[in-house]
Amino acid sequence: MLMKISRYFFLFFINNRLLNEHAHCDAWSEWSACSKTCDYGIKIRVKISTDQTKSKACSNITESTICHEHICPRTFEEAEETYLHNKEKEKKKKFRTTYILIFTIFSVFYVIHYDIATLDLFLLEHI
What we know:
This protein has helices at residues 2-21, 55-58, 76-126, and strands at 27-28, 40-48, 62-68.
């Protein structure tokens, strides 16, 4: 138990020393992608500096965490089913995005056409 406490104290001391020596390392990078696409993996981020010239010295200071994307398929059939399901979801999402874009374009044209027609009527009545 004492050995475990000593080890954590040592790591805490080293980490604080690194942070104090590199006080200009004042931000963290974005988290990396998970090291595995399914089950448990690790993602890492690196200390950086807002002063770009000093960022390289900060790269020794890292932080890691466990990530879990989703459970890995147990069989080939399950993997294939998951792949096809995800592909179908992407297809629907793309269709929905295209539909919304086309609907927006037609709505804008309708509003413009309506405004022009209203303006024409106004001009005809007042000229």
